[in-house]
Amino acid sequence: MQKLVILGGGYGGMKVMQQLGPKDLPDDYEIILVDKLPYHCLKTEYYALAAGTESDHDIRAPFPKHVRHHFGTAHGIDLDEKIITLSTDQASNETLAYDKLVIGLGAEDKYHGVPGAKEYTFSIQSMENTRRTYEAISNLPPRSSVSVVGAGLSGVELAAELRESRHDLSVQLFDRGETILPMFPRRLSSYVTSWFEKHDVDIISNSNITRVADGALYNHDDRIKSDAVIWTAGVQPASVARHLDVEHDDSEHIILTEHHHIPGHPDAFVVGDCASLPHAPSAQLAEKQGEQIVDILKMQWKGEELPDTMPEMKLKGTLGSLGKKKGFGTMMGEKGAVTGRVARLLKSGVLWMYKYHSGV
C-alpha cells in the first residue's frame, strides 16, 4: 500500500484530508496523518482558551474517519529517501516511509533573540502551550498584572478577551509600532485603540522589550513588574521545516514551485505557515493552498500534465474579536471594513460554518 503522509493536522492538512475522500484516492493509496493530538485544533481561537472564555472542547474538531492516525512528533525528513524520523510514546527515533508527503507543521514563537523571552513568557502557539497559559492566568490572584507582547491580531484578541474574562486584572499591550494592527486600515486600528482605552487596557506603543525575567519585563531597559507575560510578538516556521536542506526565503519559509511542492521533489508539498507564499500566513490561506495541493495530487495520480500556473489564491478578508460583543475586520479589501457587533457576528458565523463542515 502506498502512503500519502500528512505531517500536522492544522488548517492546511485538514483541508487536504477533507477533500481527499476514499473515492478520490487511487486504490493502492492510504492517507496517514502524523500528529501528537487525536483531533484538529482551531488555532485561531486559542486566544479564547487562554483567557478562559472558551473550553478546550469548544475549539477542536474530529479528523476525517478514513485517515489513519499515527501519533507522534516529526523530527526530521529525508527528501531523497522519502523517510520521516519521528518520536512516539513507544520509540524516540521511529521512521515512517512515504510516497507522497504534505508538510503542514505550522509555526512556533519567534523570540528575536530577547533574553529570557523563551524561558519566562507564556504562549498561544500550540494547544499544549495554550493550556499552560490558561492555567497560569486562571491562578493569578486579583489585581495581578498581565503583559501581552505584540499587538498584531493574536495579541489584540487575547488582550481584549482577557479584559472581559478577568476584570480584576491589569492588562498591558506592548507593541513596537506607532499604532496597533498595522496590517489593517488605519480607521480599524483607531477603532480598536478606542475600545482598549474605554476598557482600561494600556497600550504601550514604540516599545522595545529588551529582556524578560521572572515577574518582570524590560521595556527600553526599564523594569516593569508583570505577574504573567504572554508572547505574541512573532512566529516562525516549525523547526523541522526551518532545518530542512532546501531553499528558504528571508523569513525561513520553504520556497516552492507554482504547484506547491519543493523544487526537485514533486512528491513533497508544503502547506500553511511553513510555505513561502505571496500573502501573510493565515488559516484561510492554508485552506486555499490545501485545495490546490489536492488538485495537483489528483493530476499526478492520473498522469495528467500540470498547468503552467495555478489560480490566484483570493482571500475573503480578516476578522478579529474584541471580546464576545464587538469585533473588527475587512471583507474583500479596505472598502469592506466592518466594526462593532456586525464584525463579531460575522466572525462567529465563519467559525460556526467551519465547525459544521468539520463534523462538530
From TrEMBL:
Start and end residues of each FAD/NAD(P)-binding domain: 3-290
Keyword Isomerase present in the record's keywords: the answer is no
Keywords, A to Z?
A: FAD, Flavoprotein, Oxidoreductase
Superkingdom as given in the UniProt entry = Bacteria
Q: Which InterPro entries match?
A: FAD/NAD-bd_sf, FAD/NAD-binding_dom, NADH-Q_oxidoreductase
A single GO molecular function term of this UniProt record? NAD(P)H dehydrogenase (quinone) activity
- Keyword Signal carried by entry: no
Q: Which cofactors?
A: FAD
User: A GO term (biological process) for this protein?
Assistant: aerobic electron transport chain
The similarity annotation says: Belongs to the NADH dehydrogenase family.
Q: Which PANTHER family match?
A: 64 KDA MITOCHONDRIAL NADH DEHYDROGENASE (EUROFUNG) (PTHR42913:SF3), APOPTOSIS-INDUCING FACTOR 1 (PTHR42913)
What name does this protein carry? NADH dehydrogenase
The organism encoding this protein is: Natribacillus halophilus
